[in-house]
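The aim of this short unit is practical: by the end, you should be able to scan a pair of folded records and say something sensible about each. We start with the first protein, listed as its amino acid sequence and then its structure tokens.
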Amino acid sequence: MTPTSENDLAEAILGARGALRLRGGGTRSIGLSEGTLLETGGITGVTLYEPGALTLVARAGTPLAEVEAALDAENQRLAFEVPDLRGLLGTQGASTLGGIVAANASGPRRIASGACRDFLLGVRFVDGAGRVVSNGGRVMKNVTGYDLVKLMAGSHGTLGVLTEVSFKVLPKPEAAATLVLHGLTESEAVAAMAAALGSPYDVTGAAHDPGARQTLLRIEGFARSVAYRLGQLRALFPGRETSEDTDPDAVAALWAGVRDVAPLQGRVGDVWRISCKPSDAPELAARLRAEALLYDWGGGLVWALLPEGTDARARLGTFAGHATRVRGTGSAPAFHPDPAPVAALAEGLRRRFDPRGVLNPGLMA
């Protein structure tokens, strides 16, 4: 089923007689293969874009490329740096805004600017009972009751099917630069990233590629400010081998590789995404015994390539964080089980918004 309007979508959900498997652009599906396929890619179009107000509203099936082209024409962007995981997951298609919000897809800049959910202003969606729900608007504001805007981000379609989203957008920076530290161990890299992120130099990316033995620190902003802060950041690491890149295209390409998890692409095995305290990351990585790793968010996000069928959680044991299987198969659920109190709250929300249990059932349970 591919509805082309919100009303068509509501009728399709209301008339469902069994499980529905939701798909936007099909680029980042995780862990669900059963149910009638319901695609949202037919509900498209930018409905409002006010560059002066830094506001964009678009239907959920609108391709990301279309939105980025509109923003680029005004020298603006989505600040949360949407990952393109097609190379990692072996998928085709094109990312849609609804899929991005449903996954709360956020790249390296999250440590400085925030996640996708932090730029959402409003949402419209159809819940599991076929009801059209609207929440939020075109400005940031505090409300009482459910904050459905934040709730829908990262819900992976289990509470409702998005039909329209509103975003705050930001201007593109004038310049960007990357400081590269060479030859650090994983523990040294995490310490270096913590020092950089704790400095006053507004680092907007902090990643470490153990395979290349490179630790990457990004700075963005006005050209003179970037040049000054790059020098100051370099001075934080006396005696370390460093290099730097200020070419805009090279900087963009380097961080696109981090964003899209390039070091793990094209390699056989299961891919796990571990969210943890940065200071815990090296020890957790050692427990994983992974075939390849990539650290992002200063060590708060670890991508790991493991042998097929390996349960990362069994290797990790108890830790402060969660592990999600983003590629591969196995008996373990794709999403990390919630603690009992959180699981009870999540189940209550699912019963409230999807009383018949038809929207991606079991995906996040």
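Turning to the second protein, read its sequence before its tokens, just as you did above.
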Amino acid sequence: MERVQRKIKCDRLPLAIYREVAAHIRQIEGIDVSLLEQTSKDFDYRQSQVGGLLIEYDGDLPTKATEQLESILAYYASKYNSWSNLT
């Protein structure tokens, strides 16, 4: 089965919140998530210490799991800022 890999970020999201999002996503069976390193060479207090999230799962992940994932991401987007895809 093909593995789906999503790299996303939320501008100016604090490290603690990235960790909280990752902890919630890890509770969904079949989904792996890790924090991406910040790639900016210039330090800026307004930037997150994290470059984003790497979310991985099998392409045949049950619909309920993908709905839970999208629900978690939507919740944090509504509280902080929208997610954008990393290339």
